[in-house]
Amino acid sequence: MKKTAFITGTTSGIGREIAREFAKHNIRLILCGRRQERLDELQTELNSLTETHTLNFDVRNNEKVAAAVASLPENFQTIDILINNAGNAHGKDSIQNGSVDDWDAMIDINVKGLLYVSKAIIPQMVEQKSGHILNIGSSAGKEVYPNGNVYCASKHAVDALNQGMRMDLHAHGIRVGAINPGLVETEFSDVRFKGDTERAEKVYQGYQPLTPQDIAEIAYFIVSRPAHVNVADLMVMCTAQASNTILKKS
Ligand code: NDP
Ligand code: 8X3
Q: Does the residue 127 lie in any domain?
């Protein structure tokens, strides 16, 4: 039976590639993000492969999240797969130099936003007695690195929520798991360094980082396992990376 996936953060990077990969496999898609023109472009691109619906909301606004989910047309209302992907790092400063606005953004988007979206969708999964939630965590959620402080804390929270959701939801037939990537070349560093493209580009120079397609293929592998198989927690790094502080650059 055709499945429906609700993917946050599909206007760029990992979320957009997951949407493209799922579309190839004829999964119906709810494409979410704040940049409407990018949502429209992706919808136009994928419409020949599968049915799509776009939702424009900021995951930080619980009321808007709930209203967006409530606004879904009938044929998109039964959600089988939730990909909690929207998120970013904001800044890379020592704790003593960090900006409170950056801290708020990371906690509000990466942690509270993930919770708001999950809260809007979990009840129907409980009612259906089925569903699959895939949380996009990070290697930063497994190991803290210098100047990563609050971003790492937000991703450690995602790791804890991934475990907690699984404990609370497995009895309802709902699968919960996480992909925790290391360095993936996306717009992540542009956002982190606030448009300083030279600094952002340097992050991915001198080695072959993961691509968003690499993560998308893994995501499809996970959601296409038989119903009794739950990939609970997966970590993936490029070959050049051994940990958050060990990277072989040429
Ligand atoms: P991108 O910056 O390329 O994409 C981020 C996506 O999140 C965009 O689609 C953006 O959409 C969306 N988003 C950001 N803030 C909000 C918000 N307030 N409300 C709604 N949507 C929002 O980065 P990535 O693809 O790399 O990041 C995706 C996820 O992967 C994040 O959770 C990140 O932490 C994680 N990750 C990334 C790694 C990397 O090295 N790139 C490694 C490990 C994990 P829009 O701006 O249109 O709202
Ligand atoms: C993104 C990977 O190393 O930039 O989660 O924190 S890193």
A: yes
